[in-house]
Predict the structure.
Amino acid sequence: MASFLYDNFRLLMGGTGTPIDLNDGTLAMGFIDEADDTPDQTNDVNCAAREAAGAFVPAYASCPNLTNNAWTVTSNVGMLDDDTDLVFSSLSGDQSESIDLFLDTATDSTSLFISNHDDYTGLPLTPSGGNVTIVFAATGIIRI
């Protein structure tokens, strides 16, 4: 499957419900062991089911937050970016095939999925207990 925006996120950003604040909201990422839970673009809404399945690497509560996320719109193209690398400290766990970006409310049942990425360099990843760093592309994390 290719990287995608979750349908619920697209609906929220399109005016159905309260949009996610991509500038000031707390955003986080977690690797996904797709053998435990396969990302579903249409039906996945929040982190609760994925956490219950044990698919987050690390566990939901330990997923790192982006530190300097910014949403900009230029020439009718919206881009979410972060100018700071994202570091997963001492990462261990199952092999992971993708990574989820989500709004982190500190409660898995209200932390909404934004996007799933399976095209980052190094995926699939088998954590070995060391740090894993994600360097975001110059074109941003997501573009709409």
Remarks:
- The mean pLDDT is 93.
- The longest strand covers residues 27-32.
- The beta strands are 4-5, 27-32, 56-57, 69-74, 77-82, 86-88, 98-103, 113-117, 132-134, 142-143.
- The chain has one domain: 4-70+93-128.
